[in-house]
Structures are given as C-alpha cells and as structure tokens.
Design a protein that fits this description.
Pnp Oxidase, Chain A, 5 helices, 11-stranded mixed sheet, 27% helix, alpha+beta
Length: 213
C-alpha cells in the first residue's frame, strides 16, 4: 500500500481537519484512501509525463510508492526512457484518475533523485523476483527475443541464489515536488468541481483557488 504522510502540524496552535482545503496533501490523502476502497486495481497508478531532448512528450503509467510534504515518489531504471528524460529536464507531470470515484488529480513540478538510503530501503522491500528482474531488464532497450530476457533472469537468479539481492546502481527513485496540484471531481451537466493549489517554489505556502469547469 502506498505510504502517504500528511504534513506535521504538531507545532501549530490548531491542527487543520483532514478535509481542509488549505493544504493539498490532506485532500489527496483522503481521496487516495477512498480510492483504495473503490478501485479494483492499483489505486496508486498514475500517468507520468516527460519530454525528450527534442521536446516530444512521453506518457506512461507508473505506481506511486510514497507521498509526503516533500513530494511524490516512484521508482525506475535510470537508463530507461523516462529515467533519462527525467534526469535531463528535471521536470515532470503526474495524473491520477480514479474512474470509480469520477475524480482526477493532476500535479507538475521539478523532480529529484531520492537518496541512496531511500532507494535501498524500498528495493529491499520488493519481492525477490522483482529484484532479480531489475538486474535482468535493460529497460527501454531493444529486446531481440523473449528467450534472451529469460536467460538474463536465469543468470541473475543463479548469481543471487543465496543471500540478499543488492540494488543495481542504475535503479533508483524520483521525487516529484509539485508546484501545482489540481483536484477535479465530476458533477452533473459537465459543471465539474476544480480546485487548484499553486506555489512559486517548494518552500512557499500553497494558494488555493477554484476554477471554472
């Protein structure tokens, strides 16, 4: 299950309610909890948009693995198309669509690599087969045959048959630090609710405003 950690308000005079519209992470946490109940598969699935060196956009679905006031975390092979594009541009956009709830959340902002310690901890929590797969797959590279992939899997399964499977240096995570978060909720006659949070930098406070549908 995705870890979502709301901002720490213990030092403030009065902690805001989780339904408060003053901080987007509270609203996101509530929507994610509801999605975990209503969505049949992968409520933490999100679209990840990047651009390549020619400005051509790319879009794929990845899984959110952690979320807190620092940002939204996902993992990948750094040599993959998305890994290369994220490192080159330093920016990305995310989109959650929960069809069962008729809701959508869009985010965009700068990205950074997670720390080595974070990557190691998450990698160690993965199923052993997934850890072997990270070694075997040259993600986004041309694959000559399925058999070639299976040979790589067998090779690394044998190499790491006993003991821990170390994290490959080319496998890590990214944290998107949103400067914008928009919440969309379906309403009759296309008169949807839209709430946009914006901030100029990741240190600034969020400013909410409602948008026309």
């Amino acid at each position: 299950m995705t870890k979502i950690k709301s901002p720490d308000y213990e030092d403030t005079p009065q902690a805001p309610d989780f339904s408060s519209e003053q901080h987007p992470l509270f609203l996101f946490e509530r929507w994610m909890k509801e999605a975990e109940i209503s969505e049949l598969n992968d409520p933490n699935a999100m679209g990840l948009a990047t651009v390549d060196a020619h400005g051509m956009p790319n879009l794929r679905t990845v899984l959110l693995k952690d979320a807190d006031q620092k940002g939204f975390v996902f993992y990948t092979n750094l040599g993959s198309a998305k890994g290369a594009e994220l490192q080159a541009s330093g920016k990305a956009a995310l989109n959650f669509h929960w069809k069962s709830l008729r809701r959508q959340v869009r985010l965009r902002g700068p990205v950074e690599l997670v720390s080595e310690e974070e990557a190691d901890a998450y990698y160690a929590s993965r199923a052993r087969g997934s850890r072997i797969g990270a070694w075997a797959s040259k993600q986004s590279s041309e694959l000559e045959s399925r058999f070639a992939l299976e040979k790589q899997v067998a090779k690394f399964a044998t190499k790491y048959a006993i003991g821990a499977v170390p994290r490959p240096q080319w496998w890590s995570g990214f944290r998107l630090m949103p400067l914008e978060m928009e919440f969309w909720h379906d309403r009759p006659f296309r008169l949807h609710d839209r709430l946009l949070f914006q901030r100029a930098t990741i240190e600034d406070p969020w400013k909410p405003k409602k948008l026309y549908p």
